[in-house]
Give the backbone structure.
Amino acid sequence: MKEDILDSKPIKKHRPFSLEILCVITFLITGFLLLFSIINTLQLFFGTFDFDIDRELYQIAIPTSISLILLLIGAINYWYLNKIGLYFIVAGMLFPIYSFGDFTYFIMSQSRFEFWDVAIPLLIILFCLIFLYLFIRHQKYLIK
């Protein structure tokens, strides 16, 4: 009889504090970066930049905007504990890893590159991988 009572009540999972912090940090970082990415994309589209590497900037700006939108959708789904959020997070992380890796290869293939031209994209890739790991670790709390 006692087992029937326990089985009839749905178990409601709650969001752990570490997942709340991870989602809030993702909301803030993604929001600011999305704003700057959209501004840079519009500046590139209207031709206000005069760089020699406009083609490379296009290859980074547009995938970055797409990936930030995917990350924002994934973080919202994680906030509501939806399992589909992980797919958006993974897709959103793969765009910057690819585009910054391609950009780093482009910079290294040129004869004029400095340490920070390679270090900053590699640090961004490392940052993306750390966040991806944290989101995968919190996958067990997703219920929908």
